[in-house]
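Standup notes
- DV: blocked on the single-chain target, sequence here:
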Amino acid sequence: MHIPIYQLALGTDFTRLQPELQDYFSLAPGSGHYGVGEGVFEVVGCRQSWLRPLLRLTSGEQAFFPEYGEGIPFRIENHAHLDPFGRSSLTARREIFFPATTRLFHDTTSYVDAGSRRGLVDYVGRYRRLATDLNLSVSREGRLRGVSEVSRLFLGPLRIPLPGVLDAKAYAEQWWEPREGSQGKHRIQVKVIQPQIGLVLVYAGHFDYRLEAYAGGITAPGYLPGAARPDHWERRV
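- DV (later): unblocked, structure below
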């Protein structure tokens, strides 16, 4: 039986999450289901117009993007699986529907338990070239909070730790808002901040969430649909 990676990372604190969040983060490899969220970002993208040309250069990585908008619809798929190296993982594939283009943003979060390193490592983008450690906590209200810690780039055989002066940190919070809509909604807020630049990327919005069964009743723990697979897997941490 496979344990959801957020439960592995949080331990007993997992039960302090709002019940709706516990359901959201309970996907495990081999369950035969994946999660689908559909909603609206009140704000999403890069607010600083002078920074957008630089982000346009990296948009092919499908991690950062130059657009900014308000009231932008989006869709997310969550797939729990074992990665090619046997690590319990959760791959998220996001589609953000800007008026002029649709941007993809995907990542794989893996639970690592090797030597002195134990916890979640997030591999970002279609080539998984950027990796960062995630530090999780649960607020008094039962919200999930996450902060990205030390990041590194993988360029071919090179593993390049990013110094603090260059590194950008992501601050995320997710919760259930029972007073929103007729039955309540999931809410998420993420800010990516670089010390020298300031706010690089922001997204905040609400969404509905459901589970769907894989076609053909597939329950193999290592299964990941083709559209959610990265162009490259990264084993290094």
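- Follow-up: The first strand starts at residue 33 and ends at 45.
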